[in-house]
Specification:
Length: about 140
């Protein structure tokens, strides 16, 4: 998807096109195209055990996956874990973690469960991040 207004989807497609077949679609085509897919993957700008923040449109993608019985996968780095989540501007939204089927991070692919987030929490507690907003 294009991922308007920043076109992150187009940027990612340009990076992936050397390795996989990529087709850019308008965000509004998500439902039509998802019917032909095995699953959908979204990124995460920040997450905790209850929800995650990503570009607006992610929530509707999760709803479409649920409606079409397609797995919804979130990929994120463990350093993006945060106890409290904020959305900045209207281009971000919060999606409940209970809509996620699988969570991919640098260590593993897991079904969403409390054990995963306990492991992430323990891992990131020992990292000294500089002050600032990471969204």
């Amino acid at each position: 998807m294009q991922s308007l207004p920043g076109e992150e989807g187009k940027i990612m497609a340009d990076e992936l096109k050397e390795e996989v077949d990529v087709e850019i679609i308008p965000d509004s085509f998500a439902g039509k195209i998802l019917k032909q897919c095995d699953f959908a993957v979204a990124g995460s700008d920040s997450f905790n055990h209850e929800r995650f923040v990503n570009k607006t449109g992610t929530f509707i993608l999760a709803v479409l996956c649920e409606y079409l019985s397609k797995p919804f996968v979130v990929a994120s780095s463990s350093y993006k874990y945060a106890d409290s989540l904020l959305t900045v501007r209207n281009i971000f939204e919060i999606t409940p973690m209970n809509m996620v089927n699988y969570f991919i991070w640098e260590k593993d692919v897991k079904g969403v469960c409390d054990e995963l987030f306990e492991e992430i929490r323990e891992r990131v507690e020992n990292i000294n991040f500089p002050e600032g907003n990471y969204l």
